[in-house]
Amino acid sequence: MKLVTAIIKPFKLDDVKESLKSLEVQGMTVSEVQGFGRQRGHTEVYRGAEYTVDFVPKVRVEVLADDADVGDVVDALVGAARTDKIGDGKVWVTTIEHLVRIRTGEMGPDAL
Amino acid sequence: MEFDTGNTAWVLTSAALVLFMTPGLAFFYAGMVRSKNVLGMLMQNFFSMGLVSVLWAVVGFSIAFGDGGGWIGNFDFVGLKGVGDAALQLPGYAGPLALTVPPIVFCIYQMMFAVITPALITGAIADRVKFAGWVVFLGLWLVLVYAPVAHWVFSPTGWLFQRGALDFAGGTVVHINAGIAALAVVLVIGKRKGWPREAMPPHSLPLTLLGTGILWFGWFGFNAGSALSAGNLAGQALLNTHLAAAAGMLGWLLVERVKDGHATTLGAASGAVAGLVAITPCAGFVGGIAPIIIGFVAGGACLLAIRFKFKFGYDDSLDVVGVHLVGGIIGSVLLGFFADTAVNEGGADGLLFGGGATLLNNQFVAVGATLVFSGVLSFVLAKVVDSTIGLRVSPDDEAAGLDTTQHAEAAYNLGDFGSMGRIGT
Q: Which residues in chain A have their CB less than 8 angstroms from residue B408's CB?
């Protein structure tokens, strides 16, 4: 079992969601986050005082997947989130040690 | 010259009430946009208080109320030359139309109408307008579209006024004029990226309801102030205004509840505004239960009208066309049925009060003339601005939002990340 985590541009979320749905992914979690990579932030000005805002709004997408499906999930994410411009974000995969569905108590891949 | 101090006090007060409508409108709209575009929306409206006020003093008032014949004023009052003279008689305001308030007071009052009218357009073009482009369009539109139409309808020397078309407080001049202009600009700049597939929900309906309250309050100055006196007619206009807003809310909510299953807060706000829009041309010419009928019809009909944008594919973002254009037409046309000289002998009798179809016919002419003139000219102006300095932001700026890209500010710095660093000392 793997956890696929992606940081994407907020306006790409809809495309990513549709792309993952078409893979019959059973669920996803999204959160609004801020951060920076190579993309620069922007400047704000309040009564002449200028500030740099380094952290850019992004969306974090988390998807649990069976080992066999991870490649497809990553491909779908990358394909849907790409704009070919700086700031498109990243996708990474981590191994899950243990998984439980709270309602039924099912464990491991059954809980996916 | 002796002026009526009571009337003068009321018109001065009404000027302040009408000014207050523009921030009210700003918040009405700002609540409906996404949180990245709040300041952009507020700024487009607030900026009108700056630019239009100055333009009105410099040239707008003269074009609207100067003595240039039926179609347009002239440059007699450029820079408000002579307008401060209490002895000045404004062209056409003679005999029974003679002003009982000083001309400078009339000028101030009309200035506030000029400020809010172009601001109405911003709701239709939300989330995608380049500020520099808006600034230029706003100035051109005020001088070339608003001022002439105000002359036609409001000035006693204007051709629609002389023809006998009635517009108490601006159904044609304000609402139809801004509504059709909004549609024209939408057609030039196109739809928002992602519309209508992506959800673009209002970021703060409480702000929208607050703005609605301010609009409703200010509208008493807009309509009852248009009596230009503080007597029975102002009272009738104020009552009509209030009843139409109330009935507009009921009409919208009833249709919404039956059609969609819920009575919504945004529906209550929109219905009240639709009622206010529709009663605007009628306010000082109708009585009895007419304002309730007019408001109720407008509330229900505007709810149905806002669906047209999905059918025809124009992105009227916050329903300016559906509410102001449609509501303005409903009010202007219904006036041809409900106008009653028992309420205002300076008006006319509509179809239901023994006046025949003369007034109704004149109302159609006024509506049609405003639609064609404002629609065509607004489209041309928007095209010119769009192809020179640009009226729409880049796709990247649209995705990032107007607040940071156009104004270098954020509406809500609620987090406490300390993510900002001061540049320089």
A: 42-45
